[in-house]
Every structure is written in structure tokens, then in C-alpha cells.
Amino acid sequence: MNTQITQNPNTYQSDARFPQVQDDEIDLRELFAVIWRGKWIILAVTALFAVGAVVFAIKQPNIYKSEALLAPASEEQGGGLSALASQFGGLASLAGVNLGGKGGTDKTELAIQVLKSRQFTSEFIQKHNILADLMAAEKWDRDADKLIYDPELFNEQTNTWVREVKAPFKPEPSMQEAYKAFSKMIVVNKAKDTGMVTLSVEHLSPTVAQQWVTWLIQDINKVMKERDVAEAHRSTEFLNKQIASTNVADIKTVLYKLIEEQAKTIMFAEVRDEYVFKTIDPALAPEEKAKPKRALICALGTMLGGMLGVMLVLVRHFMRKEQNLESRV
């Protein structure tokens, strides 16, 4: 008597899937086995990268950050001009005078952009003679509070540049090179909610960083003051010519008021040194470094070495495995 044995199709499916799961487990076991067999290679590579990271971190010089908190001082002026802008804005525009209405340029934002400009930076570097401190400083002597320059770049005794460069560069760095280096050291941030401005400088010397922040605040206030005073003088001269050329009494009255506001602008600029930015928290010479983060450098270097060691062991294993398979075929 023949008996038929019926089997559930699900049994075949589960049996078909089981070897795949088993193969996956074997692959994982093989993977961990390979890593364990290559543990000395992994440890050696990790140790090599760890030592390299430590040496690299130690050789990095300390960078100090000095910053100052500033408040826009320009908001306190221009009350009369704002009032005139709503009344005589059109006539003033015809006269060539900007009364600073709602559509005018934000003086604080303008000052920030001038501060970041190439022209201002070049004039700042030349005025304070800081090109060597910017481009040739190698390290800072804490005891003497003095910068030590790289002898391959700058000869301090003769005050000459000795660096070797290819054309079109010259031994003495150009203002374009200096601007790129200076832009990496200075940071200007404006808070959107309060309008406060933070000006910071990073340098090898905390004293130099503090001095540069102080000079930057003084110079930007002076530059913006001179710009407004020059503009006010030109506007006053133009308005006086307009008064002399018109016989309409009402227009003369308006023009006299405009001249009066220009005189107020000049007076305001002459009596205040903090013309655009008022110092709320002045710059100090920091006692602690801002960077480098040596512990983080060491940790990242060690982690990178471990990952590279594992990859090296796995690649080496699978390459050998592939070669063995090819040789059998």
C-alpha cells in the first residue's frame, strides 16, 4: 500500500530561508574572527595614529581670543534728520542730501561691512605696522610677552623680509595676502535680537589680540565719523549754493533747516569718539587659550587609527579569500 506523504509548503520556505540566516551568522562570526586574528595589526595602527595625534597636538601653538561687546551708538543721533525726512524728504533728495529715512542704509551694518573690507584692513595693517605680527609670528614668549618670528620669513634684527616665494609674490607679503590672513583672525557677529555686536581677534599673543580689538574699534569709529563729516560738509556747501540761487522764501527756509541738521551731524561727530560703536565690555588679554583642543585632536586621531586598522584587516582578509577562490577555479 502506497502512502502519500504531504508536507506543508511553508516547511520548504522555512527550510529555504534557514540556510540564509545560518550563512549570515557564519559571516558575522567570520567577521569577528578575522578582526580578532588581526587584533595586533589594529592595535599597532591605532597606537601609531594615537602617537601621531599627540605629537601633532603638542606642536600646535596656543591661540588666544580677545573679544569686545559693542552697542550701536548711531541710534542716538539723527533724531532731527528723521523728523525732517518725513516732512521734506523729497525736497532734500532733490538737493542731494540723504536724511537717513526708513529706506536708508543701516549705519551699524555699513560699519561692519567697512570693517571687513579690503581697503580698511590694508589701511589698518599699514597704519599700525603689524604686517610682521600678522604674517611672520611663529610663537609667543610668555615670560617676555614678546612674539618670536620665523627666521625663514622675517629677520627681526634688520627688519626685512627674507622669505623665498615664486612670482608674482615678493618677499614682503602683499596687502592681498595680508587681508586673507587677517580675515581668518577677525570675527564680527551681530545679534539679531539685541543688535549687539561682538568683535573678536585670535592670535598667538593674548596682548596682541587685545590691542588689535582696541585699535579696530577706535579706527572704525574714526573712519565712519570722517565719512559722515565729509558728507555733511559737502551737503552744506551744496545747500549754500542752492540758497544763493533761489528767491523762494519757503525753499530757503527748508534749506536752512537742512543746513542746521548737517551742522548737528558735524557737532555730534566732533564731540564723540565712540561714533558708531559704543564699548559695553572692552577687550581683555585672555589668560586661557581658545584653541587648539588637544584632547579632542588626540581622541579623533586614535579613533581614526582604530577605524583604519579594522578596514586594513578586513580588506586584507577578503583579498586573500578572493585569491584563494580564483586559484581553485
UniProtKB/TrEMBL annotation:
Gene Ontology cellular component list: plasma membrane
Tyrosine-protein kinase G-rich domain span: 278-317
One term of GO molecular function: protein tyrosine kinase activity
UniProt topology in membrane: Multi-pass membrane protein
Keywords in alphabetical order: Cell membrane, Membrane, Transmembrane, Transmembrane helix
Occurrences of domain Polysaccharide chain length determinant N-terminal (ranges): 24-127
Domain of life assignment: Bacteria
A Pfam family recorded for this sequence: Wzz
Membrane spanning residue stretches: 40-58, 295-319
Annotated InterPro entries: Bact_polysacc_biosynth/exp, GNVR, LPS_length_determ_N
Subcellular compartments: Cell membrane
Main location: membrane
PANTHER family, per database record: FERRIC ENTEROBACTIN TRANSPORT PROTEIN FEPE, TYROSINE-PROTEIN KINASE
UniProt name for this protein: Polysaccharide chain length determinant Wzz
